[in-house]
Amino acid sequence: MLLLAVDTATPAVTVALHDGSSVLAAESQVDARRHGELLLPAVDRVLAGAGLKLDAVTDVVVGVGPGPYTGLRVGLVTALTFGSALGVPVHGLCTLDGLAHASGLEGPFVVVTDARRKEVYWARYADARTRLTEPAVDRPADIAGHEHVVGVPAVGAGALLHPEVFPDARGPEHQSAAALASLAAERLAAAASGGPGGDFLPALPLYLRRPDAQVPKNYKVVTPK
Amino acid sequence: MADEPLVLGIETSCDETGVGIVRGTTLLADAVASSVDEHARFGGVVPEVASRAHLEAMVPTIERALKEAGVSARDLDGIAVTAGPGLAGALLVGVSAAKSYAYALGKPLYGVNHLASHICVDQLEHGPLPEPTMALLVSGGHSSLLLAPDITSDVRPLGATIDDAAGEAFDKIARVLHLGFPGGPVIDRLAREGDPAAIAFPRGLTGPRDAAYDFSFSGLKTSVARWIEAKRNAGEEVPVRDVAASFQEAVVDVLTRKAVRACRDEGVDHLMIGGGVAANSRLRALAAERCERAGIRLRVPRPGLCTDNGAMVAALGAEMVARGRPASDWDLSADSSLPVTDPHVPGAAHGTDTGRHGGDHHDHLHELSKDNLYT
Ligand SMILES: [Zn+2]
Question: How many other C-beta atoms can be found within 10 angstroms of the C-beta atom of residue B44?
Fold first, then answer.
């Protein structure tokens, strides 16, 4: 098994290679504006770092968000195109699950990322491997009083940005493909041995918002009345 | 000829997800998935809607094109992609797909210019482009007169619209007439039953002191809208067919007049017309008439190749391969305002200046990619 994991749903452009038992190579760069430029050279360096070539990859893993749209699509289209060119499956994982996995927390907590426009993406977890709710997008103030949010740790950049709402905000701040790959490897191994856990999401974006599109107002009269 | 370059081209600059495959100047496949219906209710292309549709359509359209062409991706000599100009988010989907596809297959990547591609597509219809080529590009996004001594390296802008693109004017007038979006085809159809001389609409920028090759359609649009409103305010019925025909005549009169003049001034004896508006039947007819009178050979691709498509990108990519132009780097950007003077985006090691990266960086990447797969 050789997993290539990529995630561009957050400001991090992150790539990892996992052989089923450990991470062979990984790299993350945080630059919210250059996902398109940074991803492929990063894939190239990660493969070179592990001394492997892309055709050795057996599975592609991709963070499907939620995330601001433009960057999110870079990772998804890259993963899907690799999948098509190599003839290997593409497994989607919720980006928040990667942060949850990386946190290593045992008790209840929330993962919170920055959705821009003064909103956050978030979901509740029972532990580092178990998400309890569908990811949602909300204004921090609107979830501040939520009974399952008060008093629990909050992981991720979205939590760190809003300490008034998430007093127990903590890292990891950024998504890592290494965590995503480890989680995927666990799930694939569990599925291979007949157990549960092989559940992945389709490699489709979680936008959680409708496209910004204003239906133009009725034709504007140009003749002064 | 089997030794001509086999190239796959990806186009996502606006609302069409296009993937084309050519061998040299021979078209093998032209797969297009359009999101135009999703934009219709907005009366124009909505960038985020287009980007979402590109992501969904990208891989299926690539696979459909390969099947249609009956070739294996491994036999490709290169992957070309529109690097700009266009909608930033839409371009980014195509550029990201092209990069990963080229990388996975171990093929060179060519980021090419959308406008130069519109010109080069005519090679698929009428054979190699004469050099230099005079081109009139007219669509919803562009109205330009371009002189191309070498479509892979030297494209010179002679003139462009100073306000609306020609196709945009069609869309806006269609909206005033409540004809829906896009406006081009419906106005063309109605105009056939109307009188092009019924109403004397103005010809923008055709005065003796106006820029010889620039266009302006904003004044025409306002004038047509005023005329229609006056009719409506007077409680009279708007003669839709005559308005469509007279408006269309004003647009194509200026376009063809300036294009023919540019040919004459530059001593070029043929004219290529491309872009979505090149599908307009009156533009084709008037251009044919005026070119014939001026002794100019007219080249207009069939309508399906005039609108945005992947085949045009593949055609220019194949020309890049055939002429040994340098490939693009793996960090190729989607450049929404890529200048028309850049027919393609060569890797940093091949640029005329020293560029942002050292040559080592580029060589390093290509060294890795060369034996990356299947070799
Ligand atoms: Zn175009």
Answer: 17
CB contacts under 8 A, B 44-103 vs A, are 44, 46, 48-49, 51-52, 55-56, 58-59, 62-63, 73, 88-89, 92-93, 95-97, 99-101, 103
- Using the mean position of ligand 1's atoms as its centre, give its distance from the Cα of residue B160 in Å: 14
Residues of chain B with pLDDT under 50: 351-375
Across the interface, whether the CB atoms of A211 and B88 are under 8 A apart is answered: no
Looking at this protein, which amino acid is placed at residue B192?
Answer: R
Confirm if B160 and B143 have CB atoms less than 8 A apart.
yes
What is the residue whose two structure tokens read 């856990």? A197
**Taking a C-beta distance cutoff of 8 angstroms, is the pair A35, A75 a contact?**
yes
**Residue B163, phi then psi, degrees to nearest 5:** -140, -100
Nearest to B262 by CA among B127, B124, B148: B148
Establish, for the pair of chains A and B, how many residue pairs have beta carbons separated by less than 8 Å.
123
B354 interfaces chain A, CB cutoff of 8 Å: no
Residue B252 CA to ligand 1 center (angstroms) comes to 18
Torsion of CA B361, B367, B369, B374, to 10 degrees: 180
Report d(CA B168, CA B275) in Å as an integer.
12
Q: What is the pLDDT of residues A75-118, one digit of tens each?
A: 999 999 999 999 999 999 999 999 999 999 999 999 999 999 99
Q: Is A22 on the interface with B (CB under 8 A)?
A: no
Give A38's contacts (C-beta < 8 A, 6+ positions apart).
Answer: A13, A29, A31, B331
- What is the ipTM for the molecules in this complex? 0.94
Of A225 and B222, more confident: B222
Say which DSSP state B277 is in. Answer: G
User: What residues does A163 pair with on adjacent strands?
Assistant: none
Q: For residue B356, how many other CB atoms are within 10 A of its CB?
A: 10
User: Do B55 and A73 count as a contact with CB atoms less than 8 A apart?
Assistant: yes
In angstroms, the CA B10 to CA B372 distance is 22
A 10 A CB-CB count for B309 gives 26
